[in-house]
Amino acid sequence: MSNISIILDLETLSRSPSALITEIGAVAFHRDSFAIEDELDLTPDFFLQLATGRHVCPETIAFHRQGGTLPRIHPSSSATMFADLHLLTDFFHRHRPHRVWIQGPDFDRPILEHFCQQYGSVLPWDFWRTRDTRTTWDTAFPGQKHAPRPHHALPDCHATLTDLKQSLHNLGRPQSA
Predict the structure, then answer these.
(1) Are residues 56 and 73 in contact, defined by beta-carbon separation less than 8 angstroms?
(2) Which residues, 6 or more positions from 168, have their beta carbon under 8 angstroms from its beta carbon?
(3) How far apart are CA 130 and CA 5, in angstroms?
(4) How far apart are CA 165 and CA 6, in angstroms?
């Protein structure tokens, strides 16, 4: 069994499964110490996603504008969408995570799954490895909100890692990530 787990976060311009993804962040960390092993920070090509029908929602843009978190539009971190998917898949295959932690089951995973399918790929991990950090936090700290997020994928992964460590410690399971 792998001693590595991964936290994954997306930033998007919609809540639809076909949302345009502005950032993909992932942090591979040691399950027992929570020490970061590796990070991935991708910015899928904005214009290619628009041209291929990814969804943009005016309300989501307004949310980001109001919070000062509207993503900067810049060229992709790689040459093509397929290169981004290859980098993501390689990251997961290289670390072979025991668990993949996301902030809620109904946002990041369905959007990323749709993204992968649209561009001829599949999620790079087994579905049963997915865990939900939001529910873990709510179980550990009922009624207490976590610290605000910067709404940028990689920094959000770091904040989620901190929350996960606190949650599991509070639940008496400090090494079960």
Answers:
(1) no
(2) 136, 140, 174, 175, 176, 177
(3) 10
(4) 13
For β-strands 130-132 and 21-30, DSSP reports them as: unpaired
The tens digit of pLDDT for each residue in 134-163 reads 999 999 999 999 888 889 999 999 999 999
Q: In this structure, are residues 147 and 156 in contact, taking their beta carbons and an 8 Å threshold?
A: no
**Each residue of 69-103: pLDDT tens digit?**
888 776 655 567 788 899 999 999 999 999 999 99
Give me 34's structure tokens: 């929570």
Domain spans of the chain, in order of start: 4-170
Give domain 4-170's CATH architecture: 2-Layer Sandwich (3.30)
State the Cα–Cα distance between residues 45 and 37, nearest whole angstrom: 26
What are the residues facing 30 on neighbouring strands? 4
